[in-house]
Amino acid sequence: MVQRTLSWMALAGAVVLALPGMAMAEKPKANDGMVVDSKGMTLYTYSDDTADKSACYDKCAQNWPPALVGASDTESENGDWTILTRTDGKKQWVLMGSPLYTYVGDKKKGDMTGDGKAQGKWATATMDGAD
After folding, report:
1. What is the pLDDT of residues 23-61, one digit of tens each?
2. Which helix (H) or strand (E) holds 59?
3. Cβ–Cβ contacts within 10 Å for residue 81, how many?
4. Is 60 exceeded by the pLDDT of residue 78?
5. b/e for 82-104, b at 16 or more Cβ within 10 A?
6. Of all residues in the chain, what percent are helix, strand and coil, respectively (each to 5)?
7. Is 120 left (phi over 0), alpha (psi -120 to 50) or beta?
8. What is the mean pLDDT of the chain?
9. Cα dist. 78→75, 87, 130 in Å?
10. Which of 10, 59, 68, 127 has its CA 20 to 30 A from that of 87?
């Protein structure tokens, strides 16, 4: 009985410690005109995507991880920031119809090494006309 109680207490403690991190998830935002995730990493758009639909899965998504939506995040009222449900069930941020991604080659805030990759199919996301 004591062992189970201690295990239960350890599990409850781990959940409490994890909650602040999960609550910190935020909508991407502008940083000097480009769009970044909540960690300050550059976000990208992919020209093979169609309006509100991602074409990047499997190996593509390993190199270009989708900008995932936090559990408490919501779309913007003006419709600039929306959420799409990917075919794998994950929720991804979309800016004015363009799904957003990070790039594994970016190692720190401000890196934009994915811009122009794949003969220009990948581009740094910008806030052109968005709120």
Report:
1. 335 788 888 889 999 899 999 999 999 988 999 999 999
2. helix 59-63
3. 21
4. yes
5. bebebeeeebbbbbbebbbbbbe
6. 25, 25, 55
7. left
8. 83
9. 9, 25, 9
10. 127
Give the residue extent of every domain in the chain. 27-124
Question: Which single residue is written with the structure tokens 């220009």?
Answer: 120
What is the Cα–Cα distance from 103 to 80, expressed in whole angstroms?
22
Q: How far are the Cα atoms of 1, 18, 19, 115 from residue 7, in angstroms, in the given order? A: 10, 17, 19, 47
Which pLDDT band, with edges at 50, 70 and 90, does 130 fall under?
A: low
For position 29, what pLDDT does the model report? Answer: 85
- Region class of 32: left (phi > 0), else alpha (psi between -120 and 50), else beta: left
Residue 112 tokens, joined: 């934009």
